[in-house]
Amino acid sequence: MKGILISFEGIDGSGKSTQSKKLYHWLKGKKYPVVYLEEPGGSNLGAKIKKILLYSQEPIEKFSELLLFLAARNQLVKEIILPSLKKGEILILDRFYDSTLAYQGYGRGIDKSLIIKLNRIVTEGITPNLTILLDKGLKSILRSGKDRFENEPISFYQRVKKGYLEIALSNKTRVKTISVRADKNETFQEIKKVVIPCLQKWHRVSF
Ligand code: TMP
């Protein structure tokens, strides 16, 4: 693969979408071939699945939820991620497979080794070159309660956060944990410190 994949992870309200978009615009401004995608919404099918996952009025069984996220991921990988990596683009993903391990594995309690296996199948073994985990204290997280996940109790988010920290510990080379600062620009400076060496290594680009 000629391209490079950078994923952003973190609990809801950690500022992941803001920071991943900031990175996208910064790289675009430097004229790099960069693509921004979000999970689970990134493909047309994924956008439909996202509506069900976030706003279904009917209860969704946890295993059905898992399979819906995986279906959206498989579609995104085949339709957009693989072709884009083959073209040599820099892909910025707002969430990828670590979200499923953190939310459905640690959060919902589904067998983690099963999730790891299923993730590998639906992603065809693609692994991000770099994953940025935005870590923020649960007390300072503002959840709007606007969707199924944001209505989960704090105990759910405690499990998800613990999950993310364990994922980071077992994938030290790939996952870089950044503590979220009050100032968004300061957080972005920290992100740049891990992104630049990664891009230099994979693309031999200069900054
Ligand atoms: P978003 O708020 O980043 O758009 O993500 C939508 C919600 O879906 C968020 O609460 C996290 C959750 N989610 C999972 O539970 N499992 C997954 O695999 C993904 C990608 C997201």
From TrEMBL:
Task: Name its species.
Answer: bacterium (Candidatus Ratteibacteria) CG01_land_8_20_14_3_00_40_19
> Could you say which EC number(s) this protein's record lists?
2.7.4.9
Please provide the Gene Ontology terms (biological process) for this protein: dTDP biosynthetic process; dTTP biosynthetic process; dUDP biosynthetic process
Q: Which InterPro entries match?
A: P-loop_NTPase (IPR027417), Thymidylate_kin-like_dom (IPR039430), Thymidylate_kin_CS (IPR018095), Thymidylate_kinase (IPR018094)
What is the protein's given name? Answer: Thymidylate kinase
- List the coiled-coil residues: none
Show the GO cellular component annotation of the record: cytosol
What family classification does the UniProt entry report for this protein?
Belongs to the thymidylate kinase family.
Q: Note the Gene3D superfamilies from the entry.
A: P-loop containing nucleotide triphosphate hydrolases
